[in-house]
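Standup, Tuesday
Yesterday: got the pipeline producing structure tokens again.
Today: sanity-check two examples.
Blockers: none.

Example 1:
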Amino acid sequence: MAKKTGGFTVRRGTAKRMLSVVGVVAVAGVMPLLTATTASADQIACTEYVGSHGYTVGPKVRAACSHGVIFTGIGKTANPKCLVGLANLNVASSVSGKACLRA
């Protein structure tokens, strides 16, 4: 049913639908921020582990540590991209393996 107010025709339920759309858009905008926080924290744990073993932490270490662990269903394994990235920087495999498990 339409109702005429101030020269505009407003249909019942229009405001409700608009609020629903705004809610969905707001949730879609916030979700990446919430999930990015965890990834950042894990990257920091990886880079701090590398740094604590005497290696200089710069953009290349952070890039390697940005490749998070792989969840296998029975546990987690280090991401090969993280391992290779740190190996290319001459980080010992004993350090890179444990660091990448923190990524």
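Example 2:
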Amino acid sequence: MYLLFLSLGGVTLYSINGGKKSENKFKAIVAISHGVGLVLILVAGFGLMKFRDISHSALPVWIILKIVIWLAFGGLLTLAYKNPKAAKILWIVFPLMGLIAAYLAFYQPS
């Protein structure tokens, strides 16, 4: 989770301050930490499903919502890089998405 938010926050702040992807000396490190963070979250999520005996064939709504949030985290990095105006909005949206994902995992609403 830390790797994901570190990379998302770094790219978002870099873009807000006028940085371009082509000028970013650490773009490879950012991409690696973003990808590794996403993979670790995905593996941990499926491990939690196994631990709680949740069937993979009939996923509860809260798990589907968490997968949608995971996909959004994966794709919105590009938007933050390409659009500084959207990056300003994403600076607030990313933590809110994290809070929603944590709420879904903790309370598991139907």
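Quick observation on example 2: The helical segments are 2-16, 27-51, 61-82, 84-107. The radius of gyration is 15 Å.
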